[in-house]
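Limitations

Structures in this collection are predictions, not experimental determinations, and the ligand pose is part of the prediction. Treat each record accordingly. The example that follows, with glutamine as the small molecule, is included so readers can see exactly what is and is not provided: the inputs are given verbatim, and the output is the predicted complex.
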Amino acid sequence: MSYPEILTAIAKEVRAEQGKGQVADYIPALARVPGDKFGIALATLDGQQFQLGDADEQFSIQSISKVFALALAYPKEGEQLWERVGMEPSGNPFNSLVQLEYEQGIPRNPFINAGALVITDLLVKHYPRPKAHLLDFIRELSGSYDVYYDHEVARSEREHGFTNAALVNFMKSHHNIKAPVDQVLDIYFHQCAVAMSCRELAQAFLLLANHGILPETGKRILSKSQAKRLNAIMLTCGFYDEAGEFAFCVGLPGKSGVGGGIVAVVPNKLAIAVWSPELNEHGNSQAGIKALELFTSYTGQSIF
Ligand code: GLN
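Predicted complex:
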């Protein structure tokens, strides 16, 4: 089967999943998104693109942005980054407070909220205009200047961001946040509110399929070792307390967000992004996970 045939088959089969999950409703701006949206896009290292459905519609990437923030902070901070955030799966929901207290304010990994807040703190350390820099970086990776901050989503995140505020304050009390709490939260809420499409996401994640080099320009963004480590953390921590099941069913490094997006990487080959806003009980896209499971079954492409 060719890629267009595979995407068509997937879009047809995932229809059975729609209606089973729930659109994120913790902020009104996300609750309004129609649950029946479905987009899928694939970008290959040799420059081909395939897409179907709502693949050009921009949506809130939410926690997928944690990968971009880490890719921006890691080369600047180097290996000492791992003194402030761990590299172990948490086995807990993304916004859990529980482990942080046992572990003295050092989050388990950079893809749970607490860990991402530490990474945001590092962006403040290394970039004089972290918000602008992060957006420019995502635009560069995706090759699209249409990527933007949805300010309505960012405002809503702030209005309802009590748990994130608790996490960052708790880490501040353990001296694991250096910048002012309000500044870290403001940047974090904006990064969650980045809006982009499946097509832009698939293109941006080619970096991780290509060992840290942008395929179109040949520019190195991450060292080979850093790219390997980002993929490793996506595989083990990209889906919170469902990371094991995603590895089991899909077998690719990936990252999800509560906007219903998921991106996955086939090293040396391609990146694939899918969007369906209805989430399962772990906060991951119900139809999105099914779509990626079907993709690896149809193509036989997995890292295992
Ligand atoms: N904005 C959300 C939060 O911080 C992002 C969570 C997610 O996508 N898993 O709670």
